[in-house]
Amino acid sequence: xxxxxxxxxxxxxxxxxxxxxxxxxxxxxxxxxxxxxxxxxxxxxxxxxxxxxxxxxxxxxxxxxxxxxxxxxxxxxxxxxxxxxxxxxxxxxxxxxxxxxxxxxxxxxxxxxxxxxxxxxxxxxxxxxxxxxxxxxxxxxxxxxxxxxxxxxxxxxxxxxxxxxxxxxxxxxxxxxxxxxxxxxxxxxxxxxxxxxxxxxxxxxxxxxxxxxxxxxxxxxxxxx
Length: 225
Fold this sequence. Notes:
Arp2/3 complex 21 kDa subunit ARPC3
């Protein structure tokens, strides 16, 4: 999912750097309005947690592995604005420290994972939550559904970028089939990790879960109900 340098042509890469920069700046403004002294430290912890967990891969098929993307997990815990910033920091650090994703491709990766993954996944979470009982136990279920869909959704973002700017001659249909099928499998792992983590935080500090506070307006930071 981390696109390397030279895989997508430079003009398309530059366009996505511009688009992603605008999106991240908008989320920075939103996060400033949303976070306070009590929730900002949690956003930092979520960023560190996702960075660490992304270092661990899990097998999904012969010769293929995947890792947590974390967009839905972060959005449910700290809200989509802060989640976008968290995933952005993780992706930039990975590109700089481990060459996991190219520097000229940073806009492509940010668009797919920080913007499309976070916001697309969070909208699915809201949609699923709407049709579930307004109970704490519904939050992990909605998170599981959203996290599963987030992964192939981000893969579709890559397929679109490949279609308009590929440096390779591999047919788009071939790339799409391989990407979507593989990332559906990765989505299963993403969903399970996300649901388990959200459940654990809900059990210990439900007041810190953004996705739960939105339907429990009387719940304040520092209370545990």
